[in-house]
Known about the structure:
InterPro entries: COX15/CtaA_fam, COX15/CtaA_HemeA_synthase. Pathway: Porphyrin-containing compound metabolism. It is a multi-pass membrane protein. GO terms for molecular function: metal ion binding; oxidoreductase activity. 71% of the residues lie in helices and 2% in strands. The protein has helices at residues 3-13, 18-44, 71-100, 105-130, 135-158, 173-199, 218-245, 250-275, 282-302, 319-338; strands spanning 166-169, 305-308. It has a two-stranded antiparallel sheet with strand order 1-2. α2 (18-44) runs antiparallel to α3, α4 (105-130) packs antiparallel against α5 and α6 packs antiparallel against α9 (282-302). The radius of gyration is 23 Å and the shape is flat.
Amino acid sequence: MNFFDRLRFFFREAAPSLRAQRRVALILLICQGGITVSGAIVRVTGSGLGCVTWPNCHPGSLVPLKGAAPLVHQAIEFGNRLLTFVIAAAAIAAVVAMHMACRRRELKVYAWLNVAGVVLQALIGALSVILELQWWAVALHFLPSMLLVWLAAMLYIRINEPDDGTPQRVFPQAISTLGAIAAAALAVVLATGTMVTGSGVHSGDAGVGMEGRLNVDPQAMAITHAICMYVYLFFTVVTVILIFRHRLDPKIKTAGLVLLAVILMQWGIGVFQYYMHIPRWTVPIHVAFSSIVTACTAILWARGIIRTGGEPASATGSPAGDAKRAAYLENSARKKVTG
Length: 339
């Protein structure tokens, strides 16, 4: 059996363990959040048009060209584009892992949506370059990334739940309702955040002034964004208080406290930005915490309905995956003995 035959046999017969699946999902989650940070670095360094075409960097050239634009701008923008392939690989790995382990449809859907989202984001990125970084095109590029972070976080947290378990509602209806309101408020916070950026000084390209920017008062927009943040924080605080009053699982309480902590850190960064007139170096940090807040909100939301029961010592989280994994390990052991 040659290398390619062995590879095909592995992907057809093997089933990754729960730990391996979680690792793949965690890598995907980090990648989905990480590319938003690299995109922010593109913006604050004015590298958005370091590559002026898509998919090529410059007409007739897939890679940066000497003298076509400042080399550092080309390197930053081209590096950001290359990260798309890293995320695509992570998303495909998640899909492969879910199918190899014979996981339930919910997990496969999360994984496939991440693949579809990467493709969509690549197209939106091309649109933003073609439109020379119009503010709404850049905002349209950022917001789906937050949705993909949410989906990756849901995949990560739900992998450990057994496929043959029974879904059970953990949160009382009041907590579920408040959690939904908080999640909707977060979406508004993220949307208004893109408007603050769209009306501000960081255009994304060193050669672009305020043309193509959102024509509103940046200070008023920042205050609107802050008000939305306070609304989101209020509903989250009330949700966490109710979680403690109902004496739910300690893991849920921890998730709530972690979420409140990262929201407060994000709030502190935002206040600092406002009074210091948005220093460039703070923007990637603020964007990074946007991903962290979104992921933590998704994790707390996922705790509201969990699967219980099922096989307590499951290796893959799926009865079919466990049988497949056991057969693969048995065949592998037999081959080692005989050969």
